[in-house]
Amino acid sequence: MDSPTIQRLRSEWQALGTAPPSRAACHRLAESEPVVAALEVGDLAELIAALSLSSGRLSRHEAAAVITAMLRSADVDALIPRAIIQALIPGVLALSRRIAFAGGPWCDLDAFYADAISALWELTMSWSGANRPSAVGDLLSAVRTRLRTLQASEHRHRCRQASTPDALDTLPASIGRTGEDLLAAAIADATGHRLNVADAAILYATRVLGMSLGEVADLAGIPAHNLRRRRRNAIDRLVA
Fold it and tell me: Which of 50, 64, 141, 169 could pair with 209 in a Cys bridge, judged by C-beta atoms 3.0 to 4.6 Å apart?
């Protein structure tokens, strides 16, 4: 059964997704994105329904490509970001199986989902208009990172309350860029020289964004064992 937050989103979408503004938004999106026009849907509710794997209309890779297009053209209408949120609800629900929410600042599962949706909305609005080929993975991985940051902050807070300093609390406040920032910069510098673009993308997705090889394999349509070998080679070239 859906939590109250998810139920509200679904109920709201039943009204928003089929209203006249939704039809206008879908028309504008189709004018900007051929991959959406090809679906021949009349409103955003029909578009989101088509993205569901259970509809049988699109493969996982094809559905991800549509969401990439939606994010790229999200600024053509204010309803597009809301439609992206609706499309990614299954991904948000899956996050609860990847994060031990009981160890974070959430009193229950619904509070966890509320923070996840809030983070997803903020990221979607921030990235509107951006061309991110792995939009689904990027958005969900960024949400997961934010939730884990909240979880870590709560853990440190509890340690301080118990007068038991967490290891992170002993680090200088002016630590500067994080290890992920430094790795991202190193990958960017090496791309096109020591690293080809595809291998750099695999390394960035798994080591910076925190995606699993399985998630990248699903999005890229490449077997996970091939990605593992390419990532290992990319690491060897990066540190050579």
Answer: 141
CATH 2.60.40 fits 172-240, yes or no: no
Q: Which residue has the tokens 């059964």?
A: 1
DSSP three-state, residue 130: coil
Sequence ranges of the chain with CATH classification 1.10.10:
172-240
- The per-residue pLDDT for range 149-204, each reduced to its tens digit, is 777 765 555 555 555 555 444 444 444 455 666 777 788 778 877 888 788 888 88
CA-CA distance, 102 to 96, in Å (whole number)? 10
User: Which residues make Cβ contacts (< 8 Å) with residue 175, sequence separation at least 6?
Assistant: none
For residues 215 and 131, give the distance between their C-alpha atoms in angstroms, rounded to a whole number: 19
Tokens of 61: 């890779």
Left, alpha or beta for 163 (phi > 0: left; psi -120 to 50: alpha)?
left
Residues in contact with 215: Cβ distance below 8 Å, sequence separation at least 6, in sequence order: 137, 141, 205
pTM: 0.67
- Return d(Cα 74, Cα 127) in angstroms, integer: 9
Q: Considering just the CA atoms, what is the radius of gyration of the chain in Å?
A: 20
Reduced 3-state DSSP string for 137-193: HHHHHHHHHHHHHHHHHHHHHHHHHCCCCCHHHHCCCCCCCCHHHHHHHHHHHHECC
Question: How many CB atoms sit inside 10 A of residue 30's CB?
Answer: 21
Which DSSP letter does residue 195 get? B
